[in-house]
Amino acid sequence: MSRRDPHDVVVVGGGVVGAACALALAEVGLDVCLVEARRPPAWSREAPDLRVYALAPDNVALLEALGAWRDVRNARAHPYRRMHVWDAAGGGPVVFDADALARTELGFIVEHGLLVDALWRRLEQSGVRLRCPATIEALDEDDDGLRLRLDDGSRVSARIAMAADGAASRLRSLAGIEVDAHDYAQQGVVGYVRTELPHQDTAWQRFLPTGPLALLPCADGTCSIVWTLPTDEGARVLALEDGAFAQALTSAFEARLGEILPVSPRVAFPLRRQLAARQQRGRILVAGDAAHAVHPLAGQGVNLGLRDVAALQRSVRDALRLRARWDSPQRLARWARSRRSDNTIAAYSFEGINRLFSNDAVVPTLLRGHLLGIAGRMPPLLGMFWRRAAGL
Questions:
Q1: pLDDT tens digit string along 267-299?
Q2: What residues does the FAD-binding domain cover (predicted)?
């Protein structure tokens, strides 16, 4: 296949957001190159990935349009039809129900490794040029385009570049884009468990003074847990032997689904909020974790990154339809302002919820459960919250 030089776009980073970005821009007719340090391992049904996502409907639609969703759905994607949220301090729950919202499901629980694997299989059929394994070492930019020097000494030229290479993004750093970071002094303990009672296709979340505990429904009757704890407590809980861990987890979840037993190894990851000062500088764009890392309590991290991709694809498609410059500085800046605004609002909203519920101060404790209960009795308000989270 003949390829233009320079490319229209070079995407740095081949995770979920980077791979989806490369496919989305190739789908509207751009010449795309993807640079990734290492090829992701093939997904294995026998070794479930501990990292899972709660994919919202708008992003399921994006993945379907990119040709990746059918493989994911056929392999192992579990729909959740309800969300049940309550506070340990009391008060009523908030319940989101697919039937009440006239939906077949609220979203899908999908393993990270499965999603990346499906996207890469699409990449190999898409005409996207893959430079893997490869890392970037230098960036040169002028009014006409940019050039990335790779670790093998070769260069890749393009009209724009997308930094989708994670929270420690090398391309973002080379572009001189600073980040604002805040350490929550919390860890997220993750793993798979089996509950005594069925999970009812429900995403459960209980707010505790130490942080939220979520159980996400998965295939074969298992659940994925995300247990937010202060750093020291997270390390202690992670080190428990299985019996003691099961007892602690069952108690923390109020035995809502009976006894909970671990069925996989457990890992923990540090939690922080990190926002890039901007999502565009010159011909460099920033998306996904390279642009925004948020608290996992609302399950919106990868959803925000895929919305970065969908918004950019719409911007390029509209420009091509109007025979306008898809990479004009004004158009790129408009995309960046819109996405950073949405991502910043989301990041600080999740942080505020975490601060309100993850403490045992008297006033927040007295108020928060009752506020949840009031919200839970207002269907229009619940519908508005869900449509926002669902990207609809």
A1: 999 999 999 999 999 999 999 999 999 998 777
A2: 8-321
Write out the residue limits of the CATH 3.30.9.10 domain(s) in the chain: 79-109+184-271+360-390
Phi then psi for residue 13, to 5 deg, are 115, 120
Report which secondary-structure segment, H or E, holds 386: helix 379-390
Distance CA 76, CA 90 (A): 36
In DSSP terms, 226 is beta-bridged to 190, 214
Own/partner pairs, 96-100, CB within 8 angstroms, 24+ separation: 96/382, 96/385, 96/386, 100/379, 100/382
Using CA atoms, how far residue 282 sits from 144, 149, 152, 173, in Å, is: 11, 18, 26, 14
Give the pair of three-digit tokens for residue 291: 């642009």
Per-residue confidence band for 2, with pLDDT thresholds at 50, 70 and 90: very low
The DSSP output letter for 128 is P
Name the token pair of 282.
Answer: 């010159």
Reduced to 3 states (helix: H, G, I; strand: E, B; else coil), residue 210 is coil
**3-class SS of residue 216:** strand
Q: Which residues pair with 189 in a beta bridge?
A: 227, 268
Give residue 26's Cα distance to chain centre: 22
Write down the pTM of the prediction. 0.92
Tell me: the pLDDT tens digits for 193-206? 999 999 999 999 99
Torsion of CA 344, 345, 347, 349, to 10 degrees: 160
Q: Does domain 79-109+184-271+360-390 match CATH 3.30.9.10?
A: yes
Report the distance separating Cα 270 and Cα 183, nearest Å.
8
Tell me phi and psi for residue 236, to 5 degrees.
-65, -45
The pLDDT score that the predictor gives to residue 1 is 33
pLDDT of residue 86 exceeding 80, the answer is: yes
Q: Which of 9-13, 110-114, 188-192, 353-357 has the lowest mean pLDDT?
A: 353-357
